[in-house]
Design goal:
The chain is built from nine helices and nine strands. It is of the alpha/beta class. Helix 3 links the parallel strand 2 and strand 3. The two termini are about 25 Å apart. The structure holds pyridoxal-5'-phosphate (PLP).
Length: about 230
Amino acid sequence: MTVIAENIRSIVQRISKAASACGRSADDVVLLAVSKNFPVESISRAVAAGLRRFGENRIQEAEGKIPSLMKFRGLEWHLVGHLQSNKARRAAQLFDVIHSLDSLKLAYRLDNASLEAGKVLSVLLQVNLEHEETKFGADRDQIRDLVEAVSKLKNLCLNGLMAIPPFFEDSEKARPYFAQLRELRDSLESEQPGCLGRQELSMGMTQDFETAIQEGATIVRIGTAIFGRRSYD
Ligand SMILES: *Cc1c(COP(=O)(O)O)cnc(C)c1O
């Protein structure tokens, strides 16, 4: 068994343990393998170990990797990093799910690009829970407008929310952020049932995914614990 296969086995076990410990089904938590900065060979090993969903954070890097993995059927590609609207066309061609939709301008660009690409693109709204100038994501007070606008776009399918809390050594410190994202989803859904489609909560990484699962994560984005440490970020 490869190191990557062993890592995956252990992560899958931890996900399932964390889910059942809080009365959830492991089937309700998707493992998204974040393969950024790792070569196609590493992704192939993860495919051989049974994974199908992969996350990348840069268009340019993804362009170099995704086409050479086309030989594997049924892979699903998620963009988890910030997307500039001038790269919307490439993003719509390459990816199945965009986790980082955070502005109206980007929504319109992606909608046009998806029409051109002949597909309906699944999107999550990235929420900035902190109001930090330096971070990406829409502020909480912009979210309702975004939800309303995006639900009118025919080539985008809004399926939930995503957030990246600040990094803490102690994952308990991330818990309030995860809870906030869940509460935001629940209040949007109660105001306008169905507005968030599959109601995904994309939250939790290597450091804190078990806490995120306890707070309702439906997609955990895991890189380091599967592929090892990245040499740069
Ligand atoms: C890199 C990255 C991850 C994975 O982080 P790890 O700590 O390596 O698990 C998850 N989400 C986003 C948005 C990332 O950029």
